[in-house]
């Protein structure tokens, strides 16, 4: 499933004297004129400057930076090997939520069996959702975020000039077409009369494009952009996994869309470290619009209140044990929010996500098993 970026990680391009890539786009979007006036809410200079000291002009030289480079996360070493750079642009660290979403969808279908065929189908669906379409999304997002990255992380592949414009564009198309091809294959393999997996992949890819690219560029608005990201990271892969092995039902659609609000909260975590670049370029992320302190509470509120609501949903569906298990998985998340996120979301963003998110993804599986028939 194509996801809208990061997530769970960010994006970036060029201010080098000889390396500016210009404003050409991968797909040439039609200009759209909106009649209504847009209300812009900007953070105070003090709030925007809070992230300033966290935007180094060169990659950290730590022992773990080479590993970070392969995962595509903050603190990565600068690499010249083109295949390592290509992998970095796909941000492998963002694949697991999509892969896990497929697992949850398969579990919720109630029709997955530990046979060679079903395991093979699920693996192909995971490759489609993670490396292909999430990789497409992240590369596309890095391309369109090149000016922001030139401010926040100028040492990243596109701003630093280690990969060319043509190489980036060819990677975008290769991953997109590869993902859509796998989606079509899965529909044929599952014997679908209607190619539901293909259309889910196509719809997710379109959402990814309008999330990152002008003229719509949904990420310019924190509420719309992060909500879109939540749907892409949780709902779409779940729907693909469930459609592959069973049938999508209205209650599952409602439940996964509800969970996507928590996904929106997770997306906000990644906006804190980009507050300086976002403010400079007029992107109205939640931290820019509301300031660092208020945004922290919006973030944890979206994550916690959503999951507590799902606990109530499971109780109402006659699944008390699943509801109790989910409640037990929420408690450590709250602990780590106070331990890391609410203390300093810029300094501890990676540590918070590494500590808290495993409990959330386990909660997703508990919910999926509770909803299986």
TrEMBL record:
Keyword field: Chlorophyll biosynthesis, Chloroplast, Membrane, Plastid, Transferase, Transit peptide, Transmembrane, Transmembrane helix
Leading EC class: transferase
Keyword Transmembrane belongs to the record: yes
Any one cellular-component term (Gene Ontology): chloroplast membrane
Major subcellular site: plastid
Record keyword Oxidoreductase present: no
Protein name, entry field: Chlorophyll synthase, chloroplastic
Domain of life: Eukaryota
The protein's Enzyme Commission number: 2.5.1.62
Molecular-function GO terms, alphabetical: chlorophyll synthetase activity
NCBIfam families, alphabetized: ChlG, chlor_syn_BchG, PRK07566.1
Membrane topology: Multi-pass membrane protein
One Pfam family named in its UniProt record: UbiA
Gene3D superfamilies attached to this UniProt entry: UbiA prenyltransferase
Gene Ontology biological process terms, A to Z: chlorophyll biosynthetic process
Residue stretches spanning the membrane: 172-190, 196-211, 223-240, 252-273, 321-342, 354-372
């Amino acid at each position: 499933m194509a996801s809208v970026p990061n997530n769970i990680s960010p994006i970036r391009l060029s201010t080098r004297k000889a390396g500016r890539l210009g404003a050409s786009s991968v797909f040439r979007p039609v200009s759209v004129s909106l009649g209504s006036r847009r209300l812009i809410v900007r953070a105070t200079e003090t709030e925007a400057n809070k992230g300033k000291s966290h935007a180094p002009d060169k990659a950290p030289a730590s022992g773990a930076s080479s590993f970070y480079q392969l995962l595509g996360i903050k603190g990565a070493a600068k690499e010249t090997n083109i295949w390592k750079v290509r992998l970095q642009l796909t941000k492998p660290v963002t694949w697991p939520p999509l892969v896990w979403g497929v697992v949850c969808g398969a579990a919720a279908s109630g029709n997955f069996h530990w046979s060679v065929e079903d395991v093979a189908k699920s693996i192909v669906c995971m490759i489609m959702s993670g490396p292909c379409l999430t990789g497409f999304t992240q590369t596309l997002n890095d391309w369109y975020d090149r000016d922001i990255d030139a401010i926040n992380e100028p040492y990243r592949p596109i701003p630093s000039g280690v990969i060319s414009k043509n190489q980036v564009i060819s990677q975008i198309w290769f991953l997109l077409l590869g993902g859509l091809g796998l989606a079509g294959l899965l529909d044929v393999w599952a014997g679908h009369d209607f190619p539901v997996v293909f259309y889910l992949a196509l719809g997710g890819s379109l959402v990814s494009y309008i999330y990152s690219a002008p003229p719509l560029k949904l990420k310019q608005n924190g509420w719309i952009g992060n909500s879109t990201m939540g749907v892409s990271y949780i709902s779409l892969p779940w729907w693909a996994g469930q459609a592959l092995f069973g049938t999508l039902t209205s209650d599952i659609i409602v439940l996964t869309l509800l969970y996507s609000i928590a996904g929106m909260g997770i997306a906000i975590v990644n906006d804190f470290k980009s507050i300086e670049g976002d403010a400079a370029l007029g992107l109205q992320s939640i931290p820019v619009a509301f300031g660092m302190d208020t945004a922290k509470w919006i973030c944890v509120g979206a994550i916690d209140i959503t999951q507590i609501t799902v606990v109530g949903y499971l109780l109402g569906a006659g699944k008390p044990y699943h509801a109790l298990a989910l409640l037990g998985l929420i408690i450590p998340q709250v602990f780590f929010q106070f331990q890391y996120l609410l203390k300093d979301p810029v300094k501890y963003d990676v540590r918070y996500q590494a500590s808290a998110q495993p409990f959330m993804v386990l909660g997703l599986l508990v919910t999926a098993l509770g909803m299986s028939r």
